[in-house]
Amino acid sequence: MTPPWAPLSQAEAAAPPPAAAGARLWQRLRRLTSLGAALGVLWVGGLLTFAANIPRAPEDATAATDAIVVLTGGSERLETGFDLLAAGRGRKLFISGVYRGVDVRALLRMSQATPAALECCVVLGYSADDTVGNAAETARWMQAEGYHSLRLVTANYHMPRSLVEFRHALPDVRIVPHAVQPPNVRLDGWWHWRGTAGLIVSEYDKYLVAFLRHALGL
């Protein structure tokens, strides 16, 4: 048994007293809490900015482009794409993210478009499973066609993230956003609507991931 008057070992002498160790732990917790609070404020501020900048209407609706590109995910998008093609806003319509087995005639029937008038100018892409895939698939098709401009048709809440991915995949292509307004997405007072609020928060988080991934070169 070590007598109480025995000198302290080197490790014991170097160890901080319990009160000092507790103070340091408390300081670290305070710093982490402050950092978390600051990140939370930034996240909320970014969310509000993101929601405020979701497009409420198509941009430059009358400009013609080489192609019209529709990202699947809602009937309004297809109908808008076919209407734009019929109005001569592009030479061809490319629909990205189509399920295997679905053909042009089936999509035209779904959108109540006239097959004879549009079937020749509609191209389907089957390889995309997400927005990153949509951009990559469209880039390959645009290069094969020799096109240099496109009108991008997707839902308004999906447009910011789509532009991040498309501008990265097609840096030399002019992209005209054409946001579609889904009737069940209520942008005015969106925080009052649980479905819309959840959709916007989810899309904002995905947008942040996409933006940071490209900003960091990942």
From TrEMBL:
Residues 66-186 form the DUF218 domain. The keyword Protein transport does not apply. The chain crosses the membrane at residues 32-52. Keywords: Membrane, Transmembrane, Transmembrane helix. One of its GO terms (biological process) is peptidoglycan metabolic process. InterPro entries: Cell_Envelope_Assoc, DUF218. Pfam families: DUF218. GO terms for cellular component: plasma membrane. CDD domains: YdcF-like (cd06259). This is Uncharacterized SAM-binding protein YcdF (DUF218 family). It comes from Nitrospirillum amazonense.
